[in-house]
Amino acid sequence: MTNQALSGYYDNQLKILKYDPFLLYLRVKTVDGQLVNCLIVKHALTLFYQLKPDLPLALYGHYNQRHQFVITKFMVRVSAAELAG
Asked: Are 69 and 41 in contact (CB under 8 A)?
């Protein structure tokens, strides 16, 4: 299990798979155009709150056996004006 970085855009596909612990599925379009299925548990509510369509994302994690990217760290690029308002 090797960790790697992934950057791309939120593809407006989101599903809550489980509530306890909060498990979130999202689809990300990478910079080179690939669609990647991602899962997140740690800090999933924070990501769920910050996501808006076509927002740039920087993700860090690993692929599981089903070729889903499991996110361990993330950063959502949001402008200062959106944060203030």
From this structure: no
